[in-house]
From TrEMBL:
Subcellular location: Cytoplasm
Catalytic center residues: 190 (nucleophile)
Family per similarity comment: Belongs to the ArgJ family.
Record carries keyword Cytoplasm: yes
Reactions it catalyzes: N(2)-acetyl-L-ornithine + L-glutamate = N-acetyl-L-glutamate + L-ornithine; L-glutamate + acetyl-CoA = N-acetyl-L-glutamate + CoA + H(+)
Positions marked as site (Involved in the stabilization of negative charge on the oxyanion by the formation of the oxyanion hole): 114-115
Native organism: Acetobacterium fimetarium
PANTHER family per UniProt: ARGININE BIOSYNTHESIS BIFUNCTIONAL PROTEIN ARGJ (PTHR23100), ARGININE BIOSYNTHESIS BIFUNCTIONAL PROTEIN ARGJ, MITOCHONDRIAL (PTHR23100:SF0)
The protein, known as: Arginine biosynthesis bifunctional protein ArgJ
EC number(s) per entry: 2.3.1.35, 2.3.1.1
CDD domains (alphabetical): OAT
HAMAP family per record: ArgJ (MF_01106)
Record key words, sorted: Acyltransferase, Amino-acid biosynthesis, Arginine biosynthesis, Autocatalytic cleavage, Cytoplasm, Multifunctional enzyme, Transferase
Residues that, per the record, bind substrate: 153, 179, 190, 276, 402, 407
């Protein structure tokens, strides 16, 4: 697998993109993005588990019945969530305008929104923006970056990735962009992720692969424990790389799968690294559980604990909070078998070994936890399964950002 450091959604063959400010954001920052495939592509989609779903999410769930799509239009600055019938109508108008501008059917278009909930969407600005942006779409790196910047809200950096693998002697590329910084929680965090690829694959297999991939990527991240109304991950695969159609359980499929998982995991981790007000990136590894689901549940329980997160912000090795979070994860285990380690580039401290607390130097612990990236490793000694979750600390800045969000 070749990692293309400067790549994004325009890296695969046949994809164009772009982004502009259409007037939703009053600060002049870009707020409208389009991704366009030259040909219809097999499409996979995952959306929020929140019972309250934004209008664009409902549209996407309706039109994905035909799993071949050709364009995605995304606005930031307004979530078009909890906006009633006018919000539904706005999505239809947006899809109609995209279809008109690109020579497509409305149902060929996916629509996504992100921003403030419960505010009427100024759809006339989006419609005018589509007319202005479509002629500017291109397949350059810059075009991809313009799109990646246009989907951001409280994010401080754009989040992109691209890789290339060899399939049947053909260079197959996968590119992606994402947004997310707050309202991030397992089971589809508050985030948008758009991935393009030129591989030739059936939509049913692509959907299966995306669903499997999300379990150990997007569903294993957390900033603040809130799941949004607008979360969405979509993949469009236009087949323009020219490979024969991928078949499951073949060497070529496994090569593609490894790269596919890498792209989504990288985007998920970039979201956490840019968590609202975060000062630390935290990885929680749980080993030795009876089942994979046990390991996932325990890792997520630790990463979502506000007490663990605040202790890490304060650089306090309060490991009892970790054990407590494991205890309310819903997984049965023997605390007397648990071992626990904190580590970073500054060193490693063992805090618990087979259920017995280990005396440690507070100054050394402070040094370990003062780093930007922290690892918490838990060994259960109950079985052979493991899982990893990613999160961040909880800082004063998080409260400030979210206290001022609507203003």
């Amino acid at each position: 697998m070749k990692i293309i450091k400067t790549g994004g959604v325009t890296t695969p063959v046949g994809f164009k993109a772009g982004g502009i400010n259409c007037g939703i954001k009053s600060n002049g920052k870009s707020d409208l993005a389009i991704i366009y495939s030259e040909v219809p592509g097999a499409t996979a989609l995952l959306t929020t588990t929140n019972q309250v779903k934004a209008a664009p999410i409902l549209w996407c769930k309706e039109v994905i019945v035909n799993p071949y799509k050709q364009a995605v239009v995304v606005n930031s600055g307004n979530a078009n969530a909890c906006t009633g019938e006018p919000g539904t109508a706005a999505v239809k108008l947006t899809a109609d305008k995209m279809g008109e501008a690109l020579g497509l059917q409305s149902a060929d278009v996916l629509v996504a929104s992100t921003g403030v909930i419960g505010v009427a969407l100024p759809v006339e600005k989006i419609l005018a923006g589509i007319d202005a942006l479509v002629p500017k779409l291109g397949n350059t790196l810059e075009n991809g970056e313009l799109a990646a910047k246009a989907i951001l809200t409280t994010d401080t950096v754009m989040k992109t990735i691209a890789v290339e693998v060899d399939i049947q002697g053909k260079p197959v590329k996968i590119g992606g962009m994402a947004k997310g910084s707050g309202m991030i929680h397992p089971n589809m965090a508050t985030m948008l992720s758009f991935v393009t690829t030129d591989v030739n694959i059936e939509p049913a297999l692509l959907q299966k692969l995306l669903k499997e991939t999300a379990v150990d990527t997007y569903n294993m991240i957390s900033v603040d424990g809130d799941t949004s109304t607008n979360d969405m991950v979509t993949v469009i695969s236009n087949g323009m790389a020219g490979n024969s159609k991928l078949e499951e359980n073949t060497p070529d499929y496994e090569i593609f799968k490894e790269a596919f998982v890498y792209v989504h995991k990288t985007l998920a981790k970039k979201i956490i690294r840019d968590g609202e007000g975060a000062t630390k990136f935290v990885e929680v590894e749980v080993f030795g559980t009876k089942t994979k689901d046990d390991a996932r549940a325990m890792a997520k329980s630790v990463i979502t604990s506000n007490l663990v997160k605040t202790a890490l912000f304060g650089e306090d090795a309060n490991w009892g909070r970790v054990l407590c979070a494991l205890g309310y994860s819903g997984v049965a285990f023997d605390p007397l078998k648990v071992s626990l380690v904190f580590s970073s580039q500054a060193g490693m401290i063992t805090l618990l070994s087979d259920g017995v607390p280990i005396a440690f130097d507070e100054d050394e612990a402070k040094k370990v936890l003062s780093e930007k990236e922290i690892n918490i490793s838990v060994e259960l000694n109950e079985g052979d399964e493991k899982a990893v979750a990613w999160g961040c600390d909880l800082s004063y800045e998080y409260v400030k950002i979210n206290g001022d969000y609507r203003s």
